Amino acid sequence: ITVNKLGEGSFGSVYKVISKDDKKFYAMKVSKEPFRNDWDRTWKLNEVDLHTLVSQHPNVATLHNAWEEDRHIYMQLELCKPIIEYGESVSERKCWEVLIDIVTALDCLHNLGMGHFDVKLENILCGYDGLYKLSDFGLVYHFEKDRNKFPKEGDAKYMAPELLRSTKEFTTKADIFSLGISILELAGNLSLPTNGDVWKALREDIFPLTHTERISDDLFYLLTKMMSSESSRRPSASEILRMPVVQAAIQRR
Question: Is 24 annotated as a binding residue?
């Protein structure tokens, strides 16, 4: 039973629903376009398959069920909230919590040989259990199974610089950059551009002082590492979780 529409994206629409089976609330994601052909069907079902692999992780929005109907995909997901309420002033403590939870989700994803390639604030949700969760696995890329094709491009505002170079360097470090710039946006109250001088500067290790002066030295240092213009200089998700500054933030939680 549909309660109301929660949002709409390139993939389709998301609704708040009540299950007739258990009377609980869920989010229902419905693909916008019907399958165009067998390849398109395979690509869209790939999201279901890869999401299923990590669905039980506490920092991933749980996929409870999925099915095909009239050439559309329906995904019954854990109901979550946006990470920012309208008009909310975001504390640095919250920024650390979001960072830690999503790095933990990425560590799981990366260890399974996958990259998300669409990490952004819009795809980070807050569960009713109080944990932050990674969602929207439509662009997830499995480095072994998908090695003969390039990943689809995500949102330009969050995209790592190496994904735009002619060499097309696709690694899990792109997710680290995207999470770093997402936390910068959250902590610095920064409106990220899709192009232009500021967009370029953020991918050349240059940070706007007006938006970083309110960020603590510890968090700013970590974000500069995560957003390094060279992917090889960025820490992996597991390395981030082992950093003393991150361990200290985990202990404070």
Answer: no
